[in-house]
Structure formats: structure tokens, C-alpha cells
Amino acid sequence: MLKFGKFLAQNATVVNLVGRQQLGATSRFYSASPESADSDLPIDITNPYQKDPQQCILCKHSIEPHYKNVKLLSQFQSPYTGRIYGRHITGLCKRRQEQVEQAILRAQQCLLMPGYHKDLDFLQDPKLFDPERPVRPHKY
What is the mean pLDDT of each run of 10 residues along the chain (140 residues)? Predict the structure, then answer.
């Protein structure tokens, strides 16, 4: 045992006794090469679970509501009462809904649209939405 102690004192360093140099040597064998280090980075892709942004039908087709376009405006008016459908039924954005409401009121003031019922010429037009099945439930 005494001979072994003298041998260690003559040939070994503190680094060898602690084992740090051996750990560095083993990590050199297991470290990744520079090419594979780049492949380990995360890939920038779009979120596959993200929903597409919803656009209202007027914004999608870039249609500006005008008071003279009575055929379009009559789609947003009830055929029985003449009331203007709300956003939760029409699915319009806030800006377009306000424009449609202003255009309908202006068309009614100019007597282009009736105030209490829908014009009979437009009753057979295809529906842009179903008033019985609103896009969002009503707050009441």
C-alpha cells in the first residue's frame, strides 16, 4: 500500500484524482457535432390547431353597403316585421353592421325600402344567413 501511495504522488495530478479530465474526455465522445446541433433546434411552423380568422361576408368580398343597394340591404331586414337583424344573427363585424343599419335607415327615409315589411320582390332571394339559427346565441 505504501508503494502505491508513492506511485500516485509521483505520477498523478489532482485533476486525475478528482476525475474531471476523464469526464471531459468522455463528454468529447458523446458531444454532438456542429451539423447535428443545428438539426436539434425547434422548427418554426404555424400552429396547426389555430383557427382561421373569421371574416364577415361583406368584408370577405369587400362590399360597401350603400343605401341605393336595396336588394343587398333587404337581406338584413326581417320579412315580417321590417326590423334589422342583429350582429349575433347576421355574423357581420361591428363596423359593417353599423354601416348596414345606417344604410337601411337612410334608404327607408328616402322611401327606397319599406319600414314595416320586406318588399315582395325580394322575398324569394337566397338567404345569406338563417335567422332561426344565429351565429352566436343571444345574450338574453
Answer: 66 57 51 63 88 89 94 89 89 95 96 82 78 73
The three cell numbers of residue 13 are 495530478
Domain 57-122 -> CATH class: few secondary structures
State the residue for C-alpha cell 505504501.
2
Which pLDDT score, from 0 to 100, does residue 114 have?
87
Separation of alpha carbons 88 and 133, rounded Å: 10
Q: Domain limits of the chain?
A: 57-122
Reading the block at residue 95, the C-alpha cell is 363596423
Q: Please report where in the chains the cell 322611401 appears, as a residue.
A: 111
Q: What is the pLDDT of residue 67?
A: 96
The Cα 65–Cα 76 span in angstroms is 11
Q: Whole-angstrom Cα distance, residue 57 to residue 76?
A: 12
Q: Give the phi and the psi of residue 19 in degrees, each rounded to 5.
A: 100, 10
Contact 83, 108 (CB under 8 A): no
pLDDT score of 122: 77
Rounded Cα distance between 77 and 117, Å, is: 8
